[in-house]
Amino acid sequence: MSEQERDPLTGQLTTGHEWDGIKELRTPIPNWWLITFVVTWVFSIGYLVLYPSFATTKDYARGLLGWSSAKELGQATERARDQQSSWRTQILATPLEKIEANEELRRFAVAGGQAAFNENCAGCHGVGAGGQIGQFPSLIDDDWLWGGKITDIHATIRHGIRDGGDETRLSAMPAFGEILKPQEIAATADFVLSLSDRSRDASRASLPGAALYETNCAACHGAKGEGMRDAGAPRLDDAIWLYGSSREAVIRQIANPKMGQMPAWQSRLDEATIRMLTVYVHTLGGGEK
Amino acid sequence: MATTTVIDTVSQRRPARLPIPQTVRGRYRTIKTAIAWALLAFYFITPWIRWDRGPSLPDQAVLFDLPGRRLFVFGLEFWPQDLPIAVGALVLGAFGLFGATAIAGRVWCGFTCPQTVWTDLFFTVERFCERLFGKGTLLSNIAKPVAQIALAVLTAFGFAAFFNDAPSFPLALVTGTAPLGAYLAIGILSLTTWLFAAYAKERICLHMCPWPRFQAALLDRESLVVTYQRWRGEPRGKKRAPLRPELSDLTALIREASSFDTGRGDCIDCLRCVNVCPTGVDIRDGLQMGCIGCGLCVDACHEVMTRIDRPTGLIRFDVEGSDRAGSFSQAKVQIVRPKTLLYAVLCLLAFGSMAVGITRMESVLLDVEPQRGQPFVQLSDGSVRNDFSFRLAHRLPHLDRVVIRAEGLDGASLRFATEEAGQETVALAMPGNRRISDRLFITAAPGQAPKGRANIRVIVSDAESGATLGEVETYFWGPAR
What we know:
The complex is a heterodimer of chains A (289) and B (481).
Chain A: E1 14-19, E2 22-25, H1 31-50, H2 69-93, H3 96-99, H4 103-120, H5 122-125, H6 150-159, H7 182-194, H8 209-216, H9 218-221, H10 247-255, H11 271-282
Chain B: H1 27-45, E1 62-65, E2 70-73, E3 76-78, H2 83-104, H3 107-112, H4 114-133, H5 138-161, H6 169-175, H7 180-200, H8 202-208, H9 211-218, E4 224-228, H10 230-233, H11 245-248, H12 272-275, H13 296-307, E5 315-319, H14 322-325, H15 338-359, E6 364-370, E7 377-378, E8 384-394, E9 401-407, E10 413-416, E11 425-429, E12 435-444, E13 453-462, E14 468-477
Helix pairs in contact in B: 2-15, 4-5, 4-7, 5-7
């Protein structure tokens, strides 16, 4: 381009290019557009340097500010904890039995306990704590293996069941398959099944399994099948059968008993969370005073 | 349907116009002032009216309680689910507006639109400052924006007062305890009020507002609009020029015979009608989008015609075709027409539906839903329990205690999570609490549980009066075997 040429008709400069006698007017990009464009470049370079921007095969550029979304989430969680701290302190300071009497405290504990339950306990006990027949006990009914008072529930959650700790809930039922003969086990099972039938209260003693039950089972499960919570021995005179109510299931349980396990949560959850969990479980419908 | 020509004068507005329109006295100015005062009073005073609703509820007569998601209007309380009633109000407003436009043109724009009222108010403030401190002086140049900004902030405060307890609101604002939204709302509204009323003024009407664009469709040949009677106004001339002879001699009114050479029309081109116009249009160009129909030019021309001793009504409210009719007096307004009747019927329908809707509003909202997860719980004594989430909200003036029972299940007992033993009915205290939610347990006695699913009805009644407050149909599940 040698010299600037002006289009006589419009008075605008031309680009100096010519095709078949046609010339193009020079209409540069507006300055505001150019400036905006440059600003976006400056911004993107600044962003590239300050923030995580591109990945390498093994890692990624972390940026000078060291910002990360995981860190931000951690801080947000911390802040939320701080906001709850007055409630949590109150939960810790209030005796367990009195938490439920305080309406506000109860609502906070139930909401927090439900969240903790769904995260930690629902895997076995189910969302809604209905349990699974044959596997894990329901926590919404009124039958408790180790006690349904709020302090009992608290101890069970803290120390677990058959988890190996000093204070864990511990008991074991012998596998009677190695002690009794099959027909003796079947007779015992018939007797056990009769315990929850009120109409057979009088005739039960004449059953062939009565003596076997008296010798082998009554020590833990009680003479009338009323169970013993200190030993985690379930009631046999009620309508709830964790491992099944059929004759086969009862025979199986006598011969080779299943016994549940639960981890001690005190090593995994803080005390305030455990207390909230306790209140949640206790208010599910079966909690005892 | 007859259509009306609306001249677009946005692009041809006169470049030189007064910064503040001149004042004028007259019939329409008086009406406009009266309406403006009434509307401003309504806007600023309403939040301060008190209405006793008892100890636990706000005593503000009109309150938009955003955190509580409810609206109080005197004795009524609206909840979000009452929104269809608001639709009724909007429909009523729309057809009311259409009807008013069909009869009297843009009366909404000219007299009641907030943009008109506040622009008028801001003009008054400017004129007042000029009268007080002199036109163009430093003091008046300072006083004007100060007064206008103060007015804008007051306007924004007036709006926010509808959403807060008005008497305690100013103190809360000053001490910084008011909610953040209040500061934001006041900030934004102050800014927009100031920009719209002090700077944008008629530009809002000319360039932003959709309503003027609808005019061509909503006006018809029977609608009243501001008209310039061209037949007697033209040609314009100086006062001292001789009048067209036939204008004085009414018996020989032959307009076709009139000639431009023989004299001037009634318009003496004093520009008074242009100078008083809040949107700065020249009504003599004919009906146009810039005309908001406020009638101030009618007052101005009335004044001038009286002064030069000519019959008034050169500019007047009249039907659009009146110019061709060539009459000195206004044509009779046809209020009863198919169109206005239709609008009236639609308004009545909307109002009727609203009234029915308000009388049928539920005072008690009851929700009983089965808990998710287990359909039923087997209890140790053989009874079967179903768990429900129970929610109750009410807007009754007074409710202390409710009694809940279930129908459809013999020997069922009810209790809440926090209560001890089950009863046939369960009472729930609601002291000062208008919303309550809890876990409701319904237990069927041993052997009474249905096989599979059974329909039950949960009935809630007022413990004092025994009146049924609400019923919910739901299911009770039992073991299939």
